Prior knowledge:
Blueprint: H1 2-11, H2 13-34, H3 48-58, H4 62-65, E1 68-75, H5 86-102, E2 106-109, E3 126-133, H6 138-154, E4 161-166, H7 178-194, H8 197-221, H9 231-259, H10 264-291, H11 299-320, H12 322-330, H13 353-363, H14 365-380, E5 388-389, H15 401-413, E6 421-426, H16 431-447, E7 451-454, E8 458-459, E9 465-472, H17 479-497, E10 503-507, H18 509-543, H19 547-572, E11 588-589, H20 592-622, H21 625-652, H22 660-692, H23 701-706
Parallel strand pairs: 5-11
Antiparallel strand pairs: 1-3, 1-4, 2-3, 6-9, 6-10, 7-9, 8-9
Helix pairs in contact: 1-2, 1-10, 1-12, 2-8, 2-12, 5-6, 7-8, 7-9, 7-21, 8-9, 8-11, 8-12, 9-10, 9-11, 9-21, 10-11, 10-20, 13-21, 14-19, 14-22, 16-17, 18-19, 18-20, 19-20, 19-22, 20-21, 20-22, 21-22
Amino acid sequence: MVERLARTCYQRRWSVLLGWIAFVVGISVVAGVAGGELHNNFTLPNAESQDASDLLKAGGFGGQAGETGQIVIATDDSIEDGVTAPEVQRAAEKLFADVKSEVPEVDIVSPYDPEGQGQIAPKGNIAFAEVQFHTTDLDEATSLAKEVTKVRDAAEFPDGVQVELGGGLFIEQVSFGSEGVGFLAAMVILLIAFGSLLAMGLPLLTALFGIVCGAAVVQLAAHLFDIPDFTPATVAMIAIGVGIDYALFIVTRYREELGAGRDPEAAVVRSLSTAGRAVLFAGSTVVIAMMGLLVFPTAVTQALAVAISAAVLIVMLASVTLLPAMLGFVGHNIDRLSIHRKSHVARSGEASMWYRWSRTIQRRPWPAAIIGLVVLVVLAAPVFAMRLGFGDTGNRPETDTTRRAYDLLSQGFGPGANGPLFLALDLPGDDGQDQQVADRLSQALDDDEGVAFAIPPVINDQGDVGFVQVFPTTSPQDKETNHLVHRLRDKVVPTVVEGTDADVLIGGAPAGVVDFAEFQAARLPVFIAAVLLLSFLLLMAVFRSVLVPLKAVIMNMLSIGASYGVIVAIFQWGWGASALGLGKEGPIEAWAPMMLFAIIFGLSMDYEVFLLSRIKEEYNRTGDNATAVADGLARTARLITAAAAIMVCVFGAFMLNDERSLQMFGTGLAIAVLVDATVVRLLLVPATMELLGDRNWWIPGWLDRILPRIDVEGPEPEADTAAEEPAPTTV
Length: 731
């Protein structure tokens, strides 16, 4: 089937090219006209924090249940009476009035009103007004926050007064083309690797088709899913990486087949029958890993899984249809427009540096295996200290108004002011019992060592719902705040409501973090086990071996562990954060381990398949394990190194983004690919395969009979279509 596909695409290259152009233009037009809007929906089903928000909204506390922010006012020593100075108060109250009149969808709780009691710091130099948005829709609230920012920018205050905006809604977004930087880096690496502008352009063209189609699919999928606004950047990052990699593998094999004496059509067919099969299998593995994320029933996770899977699928199809057609146009001219005065010749036989490297490792397999394992274990060690949570404005750079507001609130009111909890009281409507519950709750909160202060309970006019705001003594990201949430839920609240018909639910950002982290932690082992088992079975069917897939799964897990360890060291411990231009250290984003696992495992399997398929191809031809490993590594190491360098640059470019989640995501992917392509593929694989010898390819007879046969290596080439000894190629 693959051979027929290759011949068809080669012989009907004009139809294939025009068909792809029509598809790209058509889907882009449809997406532009009928595409949905990106929508951030971070609700968590069946979580107590979500139930608390819903109860408050139903009970008439819409402002408290919706998104919130702060307008923070601070004075320096030149203003004697601080924020209560008449000129400061007049300017502040005018600002609050302007916000109310120009943005009627928000409420302002002023520190100068009775409702704002406690919103002026004890020293009198810092105060905040709470901004309550009448919506739980993040996109709508963000739009309203922009209007509030415009009003703030137009306000006039005396000298010595600082006015900042607090809360994630007021983050100053800085647009940066990380995808463009990664794409440019990929161009440079491809040009160095191929030495030819024409050969360089084919992988880039494939990636571009994937990016455009992926972006259109994201827009169309927004009708079916709540697609978060960072999805296009994430999809572009993955599409660039895998698109260039898949095309790189096929183009390299095509050039090798031309060097072996085949005509262009035969070279295309052979390339698709070998590298193309590996691309299909590797791409399918990535899609399977991503679709496994559907076990997490959250809108964000499912949307990302579908969007990334669609992008990888499109890139994979372009690699095995559009690319063969383009190779048909190029023919023998693949090395035209060379930038080298002399052709850059790389031999795939014993003259290859990588062949000699493999033989060196094979002579000393134990030291190589031990060194590789030690490196991975050391890199992975910090993973045991991983603490899940969510970054907030305290992790922003100090140039951002939200970071300055965060620091001012911590300075004036304590760190807990940046992440208050709220308690939603579901009351039976019995005045006497309701008052008893409210009084006992107030006393219990005041007695808890983790509570700085709590606003007395407020009950709605119907008397069935109450609201209490609680300010912890610790910051939202502090583990003691998580302990406070658990203590209130497990001990304090049950004691208060015991013997009554009342119910108390705990919500707010810190409680939401606890709920989401526990939600992920409960499902992550099932997801990981399912992906590992399925990958093991697929690899066993492909390579007809038990030990090879087992070793592949273990090594991929070590690569993922190393990636986790590095992001813990950088983002949680702060190692090198200042040098990298990152904000303050904080917890690891609760969604990151799950999402990184899916993508990293899929990408690691790419390299595993490309390397092992070539080794298996040589083993089938020679029956000599040591020679097969050396030849397989010699023929793929340069290719894997170039592909990994491209992915590291593409993913690493997201470190330049101002969004912490994208920085963490890009760093984790870049480290994983770097480790996998160096320590694992060039050190551990040849060492362990030498130690295992022919046992690498052992499989019980009964298992061999029942497993389906999935041929990645492709059929043996006809003896008369190529010279027995391949000529040097210009790779």
